[in-house]
Every structure is written in C-alpha cells, then in structure tokens.
Design goal:
By secondary structure, the chain is of the alpha+beta class. It has one domain. The chain is built from four helices and five strands. The chain has a five-stranded mixed β-sheet with strand order 3-2-1-5-4. The chain is globular and about 40 Å long.
Length: 128
C-alpha cells in the first residue's frame, strides 16, 4: 500500500529498514520520505552505494530481505519504497539543501524551495 499519510509508524519503519540495511553491509547513501502532492502519496526514497552497478532487481531484493528480517514493519511494505540512482535529479536537489552524517537523522523538511523547486514535505534519515 502506498502511504497517503506519513504516520509515526511509517517513520519508525523507515528508520528500522535503514538500520537493517546498514547492518547487512549495504551502504545507504540516502534515505528519506518524500511527499508527491499531485498523487497524494509518500514514498521512502533510497539510494545505495552499489545500486547503479547492481541494478534495481538486486537492490529491491536487498530491501525485501531486510524487510523480512524486521521484527516489526510498522505498516511499511515494498510498495512504499522507491530507488534513486546516485545521479537522480531529486537526490541532487535534496543534497543542495541538506547533508547529514552517516548516522540516522530525523529531519522534517517542509514547504521549502531549492533552486526554484518546491519541496512540499520530506522526512530525512540520511543524505550524504
């Protein structure tokens, strides 16, 4: 199910997923929830270090394995997640405004404009 509301449960689920991926030797460069207002849904956007060379199938497989190992998913499913290539315009745009360290952050980024582009709402775990 694609989330139309970003709940505390989904925020916790996203945090747990990134932690599981980190623990499974997957280097997560970026992870953030992003609101797509035209379609009225949130997606957990994730970018891996090796994703560009491994391809989307292997990357989604890693995510599915991490999800299956989570004791509580908080309503998070594979449908809620989208992959971003390292050169994706949205990822580049977000990195103009925010950078985090390698740990997990919890930054709400609402109603901001970056280089003339509106960012209606986002919740950032990591942007490096």
């Amino acid at each position: 199910m694609v989330a139309s509301t970003l709940t505390d449960g989904l925020i916790e689920g996203g945090k747990s997923l990134v932690s599981k991926l980190d623990g499974g030797n997957t280097v997560v460069n970026a992870a953030f929830w992003f609101l797509f207002p035209d379609q009225n849904f949130w997606k957990l956007m994730i970018s891996f270090e090796d994703m560009d060379k491994e391809g989307p199938r292997a990357s989604y497989s890693k995510i599915q394995k991490a999800l299956s190992k989570m004791t509580e998913q908080h309503g998070l499913s594979l449908d809620d997640i989208a992959l971003l290539k390292s050169d994706a315009p949205l990822l580049k745009l977000m990195k103009v405004a925010l950078r985090t360290g390698p740990g997990l952050s919890g930054i709400r980024f609402t109603n901001n404009v970056i280089n003339g582009q509106l960012i209606p709402d986002a919740y950032v775990y990591r942007l490096q």
